[in-house]
Amino acid sequence: MGPKLEEVFGVSSGPVLSYIRRDAVDGRFVEALKADKQIVVYGSSKQGKTALVQEYLPYEKQIVVRLTPKTQISDIYASVLRQLGIQLKTGAVEVSGRETSASLKASFKALIPIFGGGEASAEGGAKAQARTDQNYKEVPFNLELPQDISELIRETRQHKTIILENFHYLDDERQKQLSFDLRTFQELGIQFVILGVWREKNRLPQFNGDLVDRVIEIPVEPWLEADFKRVAEKGQAELNLEITAELVALSVESSFSSIGVFQELLKEICLAADIRDRHPVVRTIDDRRLFELATKRKAGEYASRHQRALEAIAAGNLSSTAKEGLQPLFLPYYLVKVILDGGYDGLANGMRRAVIQESIQKIHHRPNDVRASDMSNLLYNLAALQAGKSISPPIIDYDKSTKLLQVVDSTFYFFLKNTDLKAISEEIPNPLA
Known about the structure:
Elements: H1 23-34, E1 38-43, H2 49-56, E2 63-66, H3 73-83, E3 87-95, E4 103-114, H4 125-129, E5 135-141, H5 146-155, E6 162-165, H6 172-187, E7 192-197, E8 215-219, H7 225-239, E9 241-243, H8 245-255, H9 259-272, E10 283-285, H10 288-315, H11 331-347, E11 351-352, H12 353-363, H13 372-380, H14 382-388, E12 396-399, E13 404-407, H15 411-418, H16 421-427
Parallel strand pairs: 1-7, 1-8, 2-6, 6-7, 9-10
Antiparallel strand pairs: 3-4, 4-5, 11-13, 12-13
Helix pairs in contact: 8-9, 9-10, 10-11, 10-15, 11-12, 11-16
């Protein structure tokens, strides 16, 4: 039996058989793995970051930590140690200051598996625990110090790469903290691969200048038209199909440079043609109505998600209060209105901060009170606002260096082009009503 459709086309958390190598991206990633530097893979969501990393670093053989908005740096290190088969023993020690009474502080000890020869096993995890001749070496350490974590990792004799998924979920303070720790890990030979949804360069070096020349950044964008066609050709071969050049071209045009949207459109075309696995004989797909049906299905799916997300963003933080007897500024609401009014053309190349402020002032109930500092507070906190609203992945992000509001969910362009934005805008609850 041949491969299933979902193993070939579509967005998946696992590898897909239509994966293609791009020299400018894959070649650079392979070379980066040979270097003694940290690696950052970045780009919009559903643009192939995870697929790239999994192609060369199978997740089941590495240490993978999937971050959330609640993840602390110590949580990351604890997960790394557990995945290496190290047991953590937590205790408490009494500390006191000159003017304060005694208090308790957490202390940690690592139980590192060792065997008859005195060296740590490379098996780790369940296999190591199954050994009957296993003993543990108890080592006190500080869970917040990368030096201590590095020493424990080396004790296990396991040479694995640490992969951090969803780095964008960490707030600026935790990203900054980890950027300083990454230098220590790099100096001690511990390699990280960090995946994040953003589009600007030098995300980590902006927090720690010492990371310059210690980090290799690999953007997964842009995708070229020739890349899309190669994906289609490889997937067709796996499924024993011939999708006409016209349908492929229409799918490329409708994807707005998003490989994720393109993959989903091809999958929906196949589903509309009642194809769910490899066809026994070569089958040709040439009906344009299948593409139209696929587009309609994806438009409905994306519209539902993005409308809910925009409504959540527009609601802002419930803690907003009026000052001096005036109504709050409700800037998140007005930002959403400006985005919907601008549509695809307004966001295709990013929306400048000055344009956002001017556009908000034109429709705001207190236009003269929309100050530069208010705009900074709005735009700088977009990531935290979306994380707090459980918008995953985030839709938009603000690049402080270029002063551009950018789309970071590649399906959002498809939504902007295939949805009645005026109707969506009218349905966004008005906080002034």
